[in-house]
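Researcher: I'd like a structural prediction for the single chain below. Treat it as a standalone chain; there are no partners to consider.
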Amino acid sequence: MKRLFGSVRARATLAASVVVAVALAAAGAAVLLSLWTNLSEQAGTEAERTARAVAGDLVAGESYAGLSLDDDDKPVQVVDGAGKLVAVTKDLERISGTGLDRVRPQAPGAVTDDGNTGTDADTDSDDDAGDAGDADDDSSEAGDIGDASFANGSATIDGDTADYRFATVPVEIDGRGGLTVHAGAPLTAEQEAVSTALTVILIGFPLLLAVVALVTWLVTRRALRPVEDIRGEMAAITASEDLTRRVPVPGTHDEVARLARTTNETLAALERSVERQRRFVADASHELRSPIASLRTQLEVGAAHPELLDVDGAVEDTVRLQRLAADLLLLARLDAGERPADGRFDLAALVRAETGQRVGDRVPVSVAADAVEVSGSRGQLARILGNLLDNAQRHTRSSVAVTVRRAGEWAVLEVADDGAGVPAAERERVFERFVRLDEARTRDDGGAGLGLAIARDVAVRHGGSLTVREAPAGGALFELRLPVAQDGS
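Model: Treating it as a single chain, here is the predicted structure.
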């Protein structure tokens, strides 16, 4: 059961079935209630019509004996102001719902619709004699018929028991006082109609619910089939570790198609990342092999022949190995998503401090810097400047210039040289890792090809950019753009 309802299709079918079931139950209850109310009102109207007809006869001066109470399925009671039953339908055996359960007249001279005079053992003959006399005195009385009230009850007429809707109509008659007429209309037809409707609901609603569940199951299965295809292909990609494969994209333009396209984009990005990591490991191994082998050779020669030990060369290889290891470590941290430290400082002051402590530069560095504050890691931004200056020193002929200025919401740092420059077709490639445009250059003369890659990665992490174009003197001009520090940052 847990596995079954772990399926989206099963849960969707169950949810749709529950919602439809609740809606059908509410609709069915509303239909039955509306049907019963309307039919009850019709029965009440019929009962009121009968009660008003009897009341009209009384107002017209008809005697109790002359009332027309011969409808076998409509119980009628006429009650006087003292609460005594003075006229009743023939063959009425039991009644409830009118407030008076008597079925035989209580006053001498009061009659049923068969014309027979009745008495009651519980009736005071002295009190009722006057009432009987009043009933026969005047045949041209006048009165007023009041508004009807309604109630449900039951009655037994000639052995048949049924439910009724009773209408109670008060009557004021000159010379007789107040009378009350109770008349009922049977609810048999209404009950049969409601019962039929209930039967249809109990049979039809489950069938409709079953149809809804089946349709939901089939539609959901069809809608989720592309998702299952995507899941299956992702499982196969995971098992095979083949990141060149892609999940199928359905021909629709819905959420599933967007999911498939996003999944393929993620796979492509993952493939590029893995390939980049593989190249990085291969290139790093290659770059580390040379200084390590050179250092080992020199140490082995020195161990065998101390007089031949090239201490300066060993130190140089060690420094080179140290720098390469530091570069690789920084790249690893950047690839892991390390966020720059949150600091605020003057970029111009940083440039002056870093250029002032450089020693051993081949050509002098000129600085023209305007004060502008930026946010981020002072150490990482100093690393960008150092990498750009190292690159310029390797390629310049006679000069390196550093400028800092503000351009709108950006702080701009430029490093320009007068060397050979970077060809337009290679201006993006120079920022790739382990790329050196001058392949004929020895490794000792140049770096490992990581400086510019590190500089761009750091710039991007700080929300900025690093690009290269031709310098006014004909060499390369590297431009670093960083967001200006906002107030309160």
